[in-house]
Amino acid sequence: MGKVKVQITNRQRDVKIPSGIRLLIRRCCNAVLQAEGFEGDAEISVSFLNNQQIRELNREHRGKDIETDVLSFPLGVDGHYDKNPDTGAYTLGDIVISVEKAVDQAELYGHTLQREIGFLSVHSMLHLLGYDHEKGGLQAALMREKEEAVLESLGLTRDVTYVVE
Fold first, then answer.
1. pTM of the entire structure?
2. Per the CB 3.0–4.6 Å rule, which of 41, 45, 92, 114 could disulfide with 128?
């Protein structure tokens, strides 16, 4: 695996981004690429949004007028990606995360925000690499297995990331 550049931008002001989250996202992106045996340098863009911003993107790009936790915008097709002419790195795509929704889901599921952001990052990276769970079945099960394997490799397993009262 080559070098991985993860450009992270905070485009919301509703939730303070905890320290360590940016590093966690970079680790998640690297771990997915390593697990998938990705060859070459790669570039990924990650943006933090609020619920309203992600709702607008969801409506515009997917025709769904509702906020969601994460959206992935792959730039490759069937494992073929454009190369950044300046860096020679493959441009994999964009990930947008609603931090508001991530906070709500972490609370709902009883685990840490780190686990939730880690899951959303890994999930989206797999989408950038061509995985799809929307139709269910074997592809969805395979994607879920890969998500958990990567999260486990990062120490973000379900059993150690839940908040104990």
1. 0.93
2. 92
